[in-house]
Amino acid sequence: MNLSIKYRPSCLDEVIGHKNLKKNLRSYLKTRNVPHLMLIGPPGLGKNCIAYAFASEYFDRRISLDTEEGDVDYKEFNASMDRGIDVVRDSIEDFARMNPSESDKLIIFLDEADSMTYAAQLALKSVVEKRERNCIFIFSLNNEDGIKVPALKSRCDKYHLKPPTNTEMAIWFDDICTQEGVGFEKSVGNKLVFDIVEHYKGDMRAMLIDCLEALIGFPNKDCITEEDLFKIYQEDTKSFAQLVFESGDMKKRFIDLWRKENFSVRKFLENLQELRDWKNSRVAAVVDANLRAGGSERLQMCYYFDVIGE
């Protein structure tokens, strides 16, 4: 299972950092007077986790996202993938019309809503206004300026998020490592954990997906050394990207390397795009978002190579 999903917090107490925000969210839960919310900040700060944990407490149960049907009262939409007006009319509004099954309102979470087109945002404003009585909307934004419809902002309580402290993240990461059977060389253990926190600059999702998932595959995962971490950070992605770029069949060469080597596919993709002078950046951005969300590395990269036709 994708580690970012496996360790998704099921309540606000399990959310790392964000003390003031959690205090306000608990106040909303107590009064049951919940406004629409905008959670603003760079990727990896836990915006999805906060929405999920809040919804779990609002409905007093763990939200079900493991089935194809999803949850009856909570729905997530990836607005960076479905940016246009059609997803608002065909999917978001359809869900918003439903009656809550266990509570007084549904919760709709739109991840990276700042990626939506202006037309989609206008249509969304209309849905928010019409469904105020039975829906709570939570918007995740990387950049507040991406919301071009002022009325959409004015209907929300806005929170600008900052990363948890390095100490908070180190404790959190070390605990998950222990649960996954990953340990560090005793003489430098604490230093290595803090090095990981520093390297990923507060992106907790990247710490799990790009770092810990790779460490789990190491034969000496119970005694990770500084040299092992260096491999994770460097991972020879530039040289791997060069090998793939210069090959006659990039997809085949990538799969061969992917089977044999431990490396971050997201960093590899960025390096390969740089070698290609950033051609096909839109499809690369889609693949990167899917990888960050836990998509299959092999399937996503095969899709990428099929689209670029190289």
From TrEMBL:
Keyword terms, alphabetized: ATP-binding, DNA replication, Nucleotide-binding
Pfam hit, one: AAA
Single GO cellular component term: DNA replication factor C complex
Keyword Cell cycle set for record: no
CDD domains membership: AAA
GO molecular function terms noted in the UniProt entry: ATP binding; ATP hydrolysis activity; DNA clamp loader activity
SMART domains tied to this protein: AAA (SM00382)
GO BP annotations, alphabetical order: DNA repair; DNA-templated DNA replication
Gene3D superfamilies found in the cross-reference section: P-loop containing nucleotide triphosphate hydrolases
Ranges of residues in domain AAA+ ATPase: 33-164
Transcription keyword on record: no
Annotated InterPro entries: AAA+_ATPase, ATPase_AAA_core, DNA_Rep/Repair_Clamp_Loader, P-loop_NTPase
Secretion signal span: none
Protein name, per record: AAA+ ATPase domain-containing protein
